Automatic annotation (TrEMBL), chains A, B:
Catalytic activity as recorded in UniProt: O-phospho-L-serine + 2-oxoglutarate = 3-phosphooxypyruvate + L-glutamate; 4-(phosphooxy)-L-threonine + 2-oxoglutarate = (R)-3-hydroxy-2-oxo-4-phosphooxybutanoate + L-glutamate
Protein name in the entry: Phosphoserine aminotransferase
Free-text remark on how the cofactor is bound: Binds 1 pyridoxal phosphate per subunit.
Organism: Microcosmobacter mediterraneus
Assembly description: Homodimer.
Amino acid sequence: MKKHNFSAGPCILPKSVMQKASEAVLDFDNGLSLLEISHRSKPFVDVMEKARSLVLELLGLEGKGYKALFLQGGASSQFLMVALNLLEKRAGYLNTGTWSAKAIKEAKIYDDIYEVGTSEAAGFNYIPKGYDIPEDYDYFHCTSNNTIFGTQMKSFPDCPIPMVCDMSSDIFSRTLDFSKFDLIYAGAQKNMGPAGTTLVVVKEDILGKVSRKIPSMMDYKVHISKGSMFNTPPVFPVYVSMLNLEWLKNLGGIKAIAEENDKKARLIYSEIDLNPLFKGYAVKEDRSQMNATFTLENENLKDTFEAMLKEAGINGLNGHRSVGGYRASMYNALSLDSVKALVEVMSELESKA
Amino acid sequence: MKKHNFSAGPCILPKSVMQKASEAVLDFDNGLSLLEISHRSKPFVDVMEKARSLVLELLGLEGKGYKALFLQGGASSQFLMVALNLLEKRAGYLNTGTWSAKAIKEAKIYDDIYEVGTSEAAGFNYIPKGYDIPEDYDYFHCTSNNTIFGTQMKSFPDCPIPMVCDMSSDIFSRTLDFSKFDLIYAGAQKNMGPAGTTLVVVKEDILGKVSRKIPSMMDYKVHISKGSMFNTPPVFPVYVSMLNLEWLKNLGGIKAIAEENDKKARLIYSEIDLNPLFKGYAVKEDRSQMNATFTLENENLKDTFEAMLKEAGINGLNGHRSVGGYRASMYNALSLDSVKALVEVMSELESKA
């Protein structure tokens, strides 16, 4: 039976990517496994360079002063690295949920942080708007998509200072003017690849302006100077990310996948809105195209619904443990057919109820 | 043709491990790939717990107050984390080469560091002995094996303060009383698994004694409290490490592999000593069992030797770019047969010359 994997991340990747990744574990270069070759060997250096250049190409950032790095430690390490590299006196953060709050917490170790806006009082079910970004701050930080609450920033402010964005859960999923951002970071395990590597795309001219001494592994300039190979990189996760970026390019790039993602999101949200058994969590205008969060209005139907999901091969639909309910994560590699299968179950539940 | 992979790391892993890893990329749990399942799903939580407990079991550290963590960022991140978590006023470091020097450099950002001993003047071709470790220091740090220079600590001091050891390149390769150490760390990519995860084994009672505020991702206590799942772990590297630790356990544990490693080291060093064409780099008593470093006395034979190596399927024998010459890395999964193949080529070169 076909599985429909709505996992929130790590998440589904294209079948062809899995196939090539599996083969490379057995034979990548002339009989040697990808796992046993030197990261300084030409075949792997080529992989790293290709992955880095595909990132800039897909984001439309080639020749604009940006560098792409494949680091480790997840977005959680970036919460810290951003502050270490950019925070001198004060920064402004938009608080749109759990991940923003964690970014704020880590940056506060180093300096004062100002929340330019927050939707915490409303359980983060919307994106604050109309906030001011002080011009004399070091940078502004925001989270483009909130996996737990299912909200997404549809537009970004005209920012008078460097704009830093955690795009872990929606990078490569929609067309944006990425040159508005000075630093973008993203854990790989949604739309880029498997868990174990973290993408950083940074405009070089914002670096080198803080007075603190930055530890080597935390210093973007060190990683840039070493071509993202300051120390042994996470070879397999970088390789699979490269395969996945190639897949996206061959598909037609972000523009092509964005159209698919639009269709998937329209389908699920129209079911949520039309079916009286379900209720969306996020306010409509801020709904995430990646993570649709919803609840079942009648708790008595829970067991029936979940049995039906199981029977239909639908996997990974549980809401995050901090909010409950359901969450359909619809990352790039999830097909429209999988969303159709889910919507069918939701609609069948209505006819049964 | 069989390849003999003497790569310094990432390095050879057992064939059976590669096979299972390759299969898991296609189907790990009920039709789902290892790369697309949630790290919070039971099948992966089981992998993480098994990997952590195999580490303690193999090192003989069960029930002795230690915790095993699978982190990210390589030993290079540990240079920093060790200092952040343990360094209050002063620490003593033994400088035995490039990796020790890097550890010292990163720790110096936080506080004063004292080199208890160094072999730098001799090009790090031996391990300093007879040094004193001041009792009022926070900890003592050493590097058990030096991949670049081919030296290895055969014994460790009776240490009056917490002893921290970078065992990246020889953990799980020889029997030691691991309970002498309070913190051991190791990048996975030699004897533990593929690149992308870093093992930390720490005695809990040495933690929580510094006054600084430690960022969450840098705090061992945070990772311990979350069962090594504070954030998304590097799923694939952890899984392959678990497979490799299982392989080692089934083989008879460290004791069994240590006997094999003895045989391999004796074979290569006896050839280096008997064959007048070659010269070992490290002093005999400190020679590494993992990395045999040597030079060809007559540079004119270089091309012939390298052509013969290629023909014999011998791979990864180049010395580190900072010292040149040759380096035969003989990690756990490299068979005695591969060392025999190398020794045959060396001996054949002698008969030709």
